[in-house]
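Pasting as-is:
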Amino acid sequence: MTERKNMRIPDIALLKWRNIADLLAQVAQVPAATVNIVEENSLRVIGASQGNEAPLEEDSRVEMKPGLKIYCSAVIQAREKLVIPDATKSEFWRDSEGAKAGFISYAGVPIFNPDGDIFGSICLFDRKPNSFEGPILRLMEEFSEIVTGHIQIITKNIQLEDALKEVRTLQGLIPICANCKKIRDDKGFWQKVEVYLEERSNARFTHGLCEDCIQKLYGKEKWFKEKDK
């Protein structure tokens, strides 16, 4: 799992993901569902079903420490769906954090970024044994793909906004000195043209001399007059 920068998630997407968690909990008839995102070495709940039954509150974080048995963390680390029908009958999961909180059954599917990297997980929790049979897992996988589509749109919008910011900085009236040709920035400081443009675009400058300046600087020099002979 590669480390990535935290994504700026718009409120409309968060609302959609909360609705997904709430709908899943209702359809599966379980007390809680969450949509989680990986941020650095922690797991953050970004969508939780309504009610007071969720094992983690919305916007809460859980550090994914080695050896700590967390259902959702296992889904993210393995990049595969996980179903635990009854943690009390599992030698590994009976002392997990979820089981300690009273959620003895669990189902989770991973959510991926469009580039294939792990983004987070969708999880269902129940306080009684539950094998999550029928269309529940398939519905979770469909919602996972929907969230991936949302992520792709969000990423493209962020890229577009950043590009527009760069374009806006080079629009309108630009104060330029009539003599030295320095440009005054929005803080009132005068900068060389190349410095001003490099800070506001992807352009980089390499220096040379135009024909007029070459003549002005070296036109009277003997070596210059003779170089083309």
